[in-house]
Amino acid sequence: MKSICIFILSLISTQTIAQDSLARQFSQIINKEDLKAHLTKFSSDAFEGREAGRLGQRLAGTYLANMFEKYGIEKYKDSTYFQRFSFEEKRISSAYIKIDSAELKSNKDFYLIPRYRVPKKHTIGKPNVIKPEVFLNSDSLLEGKEWTVYLEMDKNLEEHIRKLRLILRHGIRAKAKTTLLVVSNIDSIKSILKDEWEHSQNQLSSLSEKTENEYLALLFSKEQYQKYIGKLKSSKKDSASFYTTWNKKTFYTENIIGFVHGNKYANEYIVISAHYDHMGKKGNQIYNGADDDGTGTMGILLIAKAISEAKKNGVVFDKHFVFIGMSAEEKGLLGSRYYTENPFIPLERTCTNLNIDMIGRTDMLKHEKTNYLYIIGSNMIDTALHNVNHLANEQYSKLYLDYRFNNTSDPNQFYYRSDHYNFAKNNIPVIFYFRGVHEDYHKPSDTVDKIEWDIYTKITKHIFYTAWTIGRSPKILSID
Ligand SMILES: [Zn+2]
Question: 4 pLDDT exceeds 50?
Fold first, then answer.
């Protein structure tokens, strides 16, 4: 599928001026007081951290659907706001390596880096050593093969861990079979990553076993590796056997989907999304997820309300709008993956995805511009989308659009880390709106009292203006 988007500068500049007063009028529906009232409820303890497949997520999904109904957002085929799907969660119970008479145990002699489809049994043969830079710049070379990467300690531990993550992710993307990472400073890495690994070993999630590639990633200290794996020869007798066992459970969840339809000639759909699930609770600690991604979800709710009110008041749209509260994003972008594999509207007719995740706080970088907004992905598939967003900002929002993370090789890898990626993967132009990672990210302390309401409201309005501009212009982002 190839989408060709036509962008006519003269058309948009005259149209935006003509539509200025209407867009501004209906943008008033998006206001601080309503965002605050909704988000205070949505991120309250009553929704138990909204973990996909659990009661709290179901309550939050029902809240969003009820609000869609209240604001006159249309249902799919007039019948439902819910797109139900199942996913699996796995808990790894043991992992070990047998070699000659020795038995190496995970979390002691080596570390199993949690991945959904770890093989039950795998034979590790003679090491195939590759330099980190070569590994990161190879794709086809890696596919189906087993690699050992020696990662030398960086001066900066944070940088070292970023590289480690980059290597692991690249191994999956390039469909390597195995990545054996060997490091000299295993203790310092362990102290940083242990919690994360243990948490995700309890919770590896996937839509189904079949959709995942088998991938094994192991971390060794230099000493242990050289003692056992480094000396392996290719003969079958001389190999190591990796084993693992796990338990699996199926959960049900739902994406919440609403429509505002355009005029009778409209053929294309603008998808505006945010994930409404979060991390649930651990013991009696609730992860409220006010910023992540309560802000995005309540943002799309009020954008939907504003567009719907405009339509009720006679404003005509040349494109349709689809508003999606995605579920199971925190489990690995599962809701958007399910939606793009089973779309309510064919992807060929989906001209863009505007995705919002965490727009209510300031991140840990020191910004000169307090009204910054990270824009990610806008020019990667189609510059027309980039231009519309830019013009909407000039015309209405006057934010500082910050493109520092708009890069597929950025170590943070944000381009791959929220739901827009599943649309981008299908060649649909996307924008990921984001304000960065703060100190309460993925902690119980991501609570509503820390939201910065003025900038949050401003950004929500900006996304509304961008959606409005695309929706009111038949020639912008038209699919051929
Ligand atoms: Zn998020």
Answer: no
